[in-house]
Records
---
Amino acid sequence: MEKLAIFVEGYTELLFVERLVEEIAGRNKVLIDLKKIRGGSNIPRKMITIKAGKDTGQKYYVLLVDCGGDEQVKSRIMQEHDNLTKAGYSKLIGIRDVSPSFLHTDIPKLQANLPKYIKTKLAPVSFILSIMEIEAWFLAEISHFSKIDTAITVDAINARLGFDIEKDDIEQRTYPARDLHVCYSIAGKAYVKSQAKITVDVLDYEAIYIGLRTRIDYLGILISDIDSFLK
C-alpha cells in the first residue's frame, strides 16, 4: 500500500484535506486515518486516533495528523520523520497558516526557514503555506456562498469587503477567517472554526481542483503533490 502523511495545524485543515483527498482519489480508492499529536514537552507525546478508516484493500493510505498549532507542524514532522520513513511513507507534507505568527512581509523568511534541519536522506518533505489562513481558500471558492444562504451574493460580498473576491489577490487578505464571517453575516449567519465542517461540506472540490489551483499557488502545489502520490 502506498503511504502519504499530511501534517496540519488544526481540525479545520484536517477536515478540508480529508475531503480534498477523497474527492481527488475517489472515496473507495484511499484509506484515510485522522489522528492528532499532543504532548511532547512536559508530558509524553501521544498520537491519538480521531477517526480510523476501514481497510477494504485500498491501494493508497493517507495519514492526516492534527498537530495542535501552526508552530507545531514542523516540529511534529521532525519528530515522526524517521519512524514514518521506516514505515514506508513515500512523502510527508506540512500545511500551516502564515497568520497570526507572521505578516505578509515575513513570508519569504518563513519559506526559507521551514526546510531547515529537515533530514534530506529520509522521505521527502514539502511545506504548504495557506496565506494568510486556510479560510482564504474557502473565500476563493465563491460558489459555496449560495449554499450557505442565497442572500450571500458576490456583489454583496464585494460591497461589504471593499474587495473583488473573484479578481483580486485573495492571499492579500490579512484576516480571511474574519472575512468569511463577514460574508456569512450578510445573511445573519456566522463562520466559526468549531463549525467549519459546514463550510468544508459545501465547497465545490471540482472548482478547487480545476480552477483555484491555478489562482492560489500553494493550493496548486498541494493538489499536485496529492496527484503525484495517487499515480
---
Amino acid sequence: MKSFLVIGLGRFGQHLALKLMDLGNEVMAVDKEEDRVTRIAHLVTASQIGDCQDEEVLKALGVKNYDACFVCVSADFQCSLEVTCALKELGAQYVVARADRDKQAKFLKSIGADEVIHTEMDMAHRIAVRFSAKGAFEYIELTPEYAIFEIATPKSWIGQSVAEVGVRREYNINVIGIKKGSDITPLTKAGYVFSESEHLIIAGSQKDALKLMRIR
C-alpha cells in the first residue's frame, strides 16, 4: 500500500484522490476551502483544511512520509509554484504538479517538480490517438513514441497463430495479452491461434500500431 498527499481539491484533485483510494492506497487530502474538504473527508484516509502556501502547514503534514505529493492547484499558478518549491525543500520524495500550459510546466520543472501533468493537453492527445486508431478500445501512452493499445483482432489474423502471422517481423509490434470479456491473459506462446471473439493487447511504437489498425 502506498501513501499519497493531494493538495488542492478542485475537480481534478478530487477525482485523483478518489481514484487513488479506489486502487487501495492511503490518501491525505488538503485544501484551504472548507467545503471542498468536507465533501471528500469521508471518502479518503485523512483530510485537512489548510493553506499549503504556509510552510508550517506543510511541515505538520510530514511531506517526507508520502510516496508522492500531488500539487493540483490550477486557479492560482503562483500558489502552485510556491507549494511545489516548498515540498522539495522539505524533502518530499516525489512531487507531481499540474500545469495548463507549456510555459507553466517549464517553470514547475525548473523549481524541482519531478513530474508535470498537462491535464488538458494529455487528454486531448489521448483522445486524438484513440479516434485516429480504427478499432482501438483503450490506449495507454508509455512515452511520446510508445504505447499500449487494446484492439479488435484483425480479420486477416483470425484462425492463424502468432508465428504464422509473423506479428513482430511483419508489423514491428508485440501482442502481450489476450482479452476475453473482462479477463486479460498474458500471451506467451507463438502457437496461440487468434480468434474473432477476443481483443488483443498490443505494445509498440504509436506509428506502427496505428499503421496496423489502418490496414485491418
---
Amino acid sequence: MSAEQRVVSFVVLVSWLIWGGVMAYSWTNANARAHVYSEQMVPSFLDFLSEFPLETVQDMPFESLSRNQQKANGTRDGSRVAQRDTEQVNRSYNLNEVDSVFLESLPRIGPKLAGRICRFRELLGGFYSVEQLGEVWGIYPDQLEAILPWFHPGDGVYQKLCADSASWDELRRHPYIGFQGARRIERYRLQHQLNAVSDLLDAVPISDSLYRCWEPYLRLCISS
C-alpha cells in the first residue's frame, strides 16, 4: 500500500469515528430529555385527572351504544332494506317501458347493466320475451334467474323493420340480422318480390331458430 493510500484510509477511519461519537452523544441526550419529560409530565397529568370531577363526565350530553346495541340496530336496518327490496320486486314491470334509472333502483341490477339492457332494447326495437335478457352482454346466469320474475314484455316489439324497403344499413344494425343477414335480404329483394316475411325462410339460407328471431321484428310495408 502506498503512502497516499494509507493517508486516505486513515482519514476515512477518523471520519467514521467522529460520526459515531456524534450519533452516540445525540442518542444519549435524546433519551435523557425524554426521561426528564416523562418525569415532569406524567405526574402532572395524573394530578389533573384526580382533580377532574367524575360527575362532569356523567352529565355529558352524549349516548354510548354497546356493541350489541349497534349490531341489533344494524340488523334491523338490514331487515328493513331487504323488506323494501322484496316489496319493490314483488311486482312485474313492463320490460319495454322501464328506463335505466328505474332499473338501477332494483337489486341485482347496477348502472352498467341497466344501460346495456336499455341499449339492447333500443337496437332490437323492443323485447318480445323476457328471456331475451339472457342475451344482454355481461349478465350472469344466476343474476338472470333472479331478475326474470320481475318483468313482463307488455305488448312486445314496438318497432319493426320493413323487410321489403328498409336499407341495408338499417337492417345490418339490428342485432339479430347483422351484416350477413342484411346482405342476404337485400340480394333476394333485387331478384324477387316479397309477398310475406315468411318468404325469407325459403329464399335466404337461414335456420329455423334464426328466422324465429327475425320474424317478430320484420313486416312488409310496400307489398302490404
